[in-house]
Amino acid sequence: MIQEQSGRGPRIRAVRITPIAIQDPPLLNAAGLHAPFALRTVVELETEDGVIGISEIPGNEATNQALEEASRLVIGKDLYQLNKLQKELEAYFGKDSVTDRGDAPWDQRKLVHVFSALEVACLDCIGKLVNRPVVDLLGGRMRDSVPFAAYLFFKYEGAGGDWGFSKDPGARGWDAARQEAAVDPQGIVNQAIAMCKEYGFQSIKLKGGAFEPELEVACMQALYREFGPAMPLRFDPNAIWKPETGLKYGKVMEPILEYLEDPVRGQENMAWLRGQIKTPLATNMCTTSFDEIPSSIRLGSEDIILSDHHFWGGLRASMELSRVCNVFGRDLSMHSNSHLGISLAAMVHLGAALPQLRYALDTHYPWQSEEIITGGRLAFDNGAVHVPSGPGLGVELDRDSLQTLHQNYLKCGLKKRDDQVEMQKVHPDWTFQKIRW
Ligand code: GKR
Ligand code: MG
């Protein structure tokens, strides 16, 4: 006999949404240039008993507007009823479609962001209520710390933020090194040495798609010469290469790569290339939602899906994805965008819960210098982050920093990420091309 559920979880009393802007250096990618500030949104969700859960997602005025609407829907709801909440949000906003993602390297869908923000904040609250870390709400820990990779970028000189393209003379160590320009092999190698020295990373990724393939591949070869075969290397030109370019340089880099990320655009092209080269292919661009799994399996478009809980609809959805990946012989790792410690903590709880984790996760964290959690920036130990020990996410909001970074948001005037516009401030004729080389 099915028992009627009699318990009633705490109700959600309030949702607070705070857009913030964080300093971001002038990093280059296939879509253009990072603005001096990256936008994030911090969500605080408060229960009727005054317990507060937090989350962080990429900032965008349209997402914030959707979050405002969603919060009107969730107030008064039972904190534990996440499945129902998701259905209600789907009914209200309509399901995201594959094309809503957009052509940029990052994801622009609405519902996945909104639900992920609310889900992570609810899980943080639940963890605090039952005095368990979020990793335990995801089924428990498979590891105590989660490895990350050094994430290198071609970049112009500059610190970002109010410094823009100039350097903060007070900076030391990695904080100074991250302000140096890197537009050639030596610049990239110097960046890698400084980042690995500071964080102890055990694998390296280079974001490409900014320059001619020949130059970018020369940078990968320079990294290989500098760090040797024991250092796993990855390269990601964000799908800007034609299939023949993917084949040519995919072959050249075969002996030196751990994996090649989104060399070409679309599942068909990825599947074709995958049949031609031995290097595993990874993606955060061609298989980006559950709706795309059937065609991914039919075509065989990648070996590794780079999930992102902000884009796949939360931490539990990412756990579900890991099971799907396991069934169909895919590996799962994680994608990132410029972020702070709340997102990092969520990634670490998820990374610790994943049954299999063969590849170190991406993170932009070294490129940021600010924080919104108490106690300052999270520490890396040999490239890995220990699962925070407190209940919930195990990190607390620093309200003074939140206010400072919110003031940055108001001052900087940015409302959404647009790397093409930023690039045109430097090169007025530059335009984004989905496939360039
Ligand atoms: O931060 O410029 C960037 C990256 O290009 C980012 O937007 C991508 O979404 O890191 C991402 C990726 O792996 O494609
Ligand atoms: Mg990528």
Can you walk through the features of this model?
With 437 residues, this protein is of the alpha/beta class. The chain folds into two domains: 12-136 and 400-412, Enolase-like, N-terminal domain (Enolase-like, domain 1), CATH 3.30.390.10; 139-393, TIM Barrel, CATH 3.20.20. It contains 14 helices and 14 strands. It has helices at residues 61-74, 82-93, 110-130, 134-137, 173-177, 185-199, 213-227, 243-253, 267-274, 293-299, 315-327, 341-353, 399-412, 419-426, and strands spanning 12-23, 28-29, 32-33, 37-47, 52-58, 145-147, 150-153, 204-207, 233-236, 259-261, 281-283, 304-307, 331-334, 384-386. Strands 7-8-9-10-11-12-13 form a seven-stranded parallel sheet, with helices on one face. Strands 1-4-5 form a three-stranded antiparallel sheet. Strands 2-3 form a two-stranded antiparallel ribbon. β10, α9 (267-274) and β11 (281-283) form a beta-alpha-beta unit. α1 (61-74) crosses α2, α2 (82-93) runs antiparallel to α3 (110-130) and α8 (243-253) packs parallel to α9. The protein is globular, with a radius of gyration of 21 Å. It starts with 11 loop residues before the first strand and ends in an 11-residue tail after the last helix. The mean pLDDT is 96. Bound molecules: D-glucarate (GKR) and magnesium ion. The site of D-glucarate has 13 residues, from loops.
